């Protein structure tokens, strides 16, 4: 390298460093850093992540929530972190916004900025399991992101390796969706497993996420598809199954049955709003999922990598199969109310459990 090039590249590196420092200074103001430090002194907190304001508002308005006396909220990166106590448990709650990117991002900000001992994620969801009804509150044991795909070349069969499979980037372990099976008009009038080669969309194969563990070697990737919620939280969640839930949104709109809290095996999330009977049936038959939403698996993936215990509570507001709009306009407020009820009960139970554990030590 010539001396001129060396001097120029050194200058460039210094400019980069200076601009990064500037960005950092401008981004988290010293005032905000002080407030975060003060809040963290009083931690740890239970983090609460909720997709939308209509899901968080009932909790903030309930008499169970007391805002922090001096720093009730902190705003950063377009998010508002609300600090307070819920049933005497210290909490920080944030509305993430819709979809995987927003919910993953908001969860990571929460964990990076604050002293968080666990995360509770709740909201409403669609449902693909025929045993579960609108109004039921589901608590899955595993979450998967079902939106990371490898779209197979036309002409290739399930026995053929996927693009880049041999380098370890992709796998055929979790199954695929074959578009040709979902033609309108079937072969000889019936659904069958006969191979339909005449659809250029062929197959999409579901892929595990690439993750980087907080205590692992940096840049050393691992893969995970089914992300387990915290064992201890899940055991506590089983105790929520006898909560009595509301059946009516108002005197005119009632569910045909009393809704119930159910712990279920699996939930799935992707950047896809599902309101399609065929895809709903596919998600159930392939993955045996119950709730389907656009955020929970992202919260799960972030908490799993950061080794932070988490649990997800999702109340069913629609059946994801063609009438979602009408169903959720009738029942989403009832679903939110019931989700909040279960979330508050979880917080109380987990606090009691902590106190018992502390007393035993
Ligand atoms: C949606 O699913 C429910 C429950 O399984 C079923 O009763 C209903 O007929 C389905 N609707 C459509 C449009 O497939
Ligand atoms: C849901 O709302 C629609 C339209 O407002 C109404 O026709 C329907 O009867 C309602 N369903 C239930 C179960 O309340």
From TrEMBL:
Secretion signal, residue range per the UniProt entry: 1-26
Superkingdom assignment: Eukaryota
Pfam families linked? PNP_UDP_1 (PF01048)
Per the database record, which ranges form the Nucleoside phosphorylase domain?
A: 47-148, 191-347
Q: Which Gene3D superfamilies match?
A: Nucleoside phosphorylase domain (3.40.50.1580)
Extract the coiled-coil ranges from the record.
Answer: none
Which keywords accompany this UniProt record?
Signal
Give an example GO biological process: nucleoside metabolic process
The molecular function terms in GO held by this entry are:
catalytic activity
Return the PANTHER family for the record. Answer: PHOSPHORYLASE SUPERFAMILY PROTEIN, PURINE NUCLEOSIDE PHOSPHORYLASE
Q: What is this protein called?
A: Nucleoside phosphorylase domain-containing protein
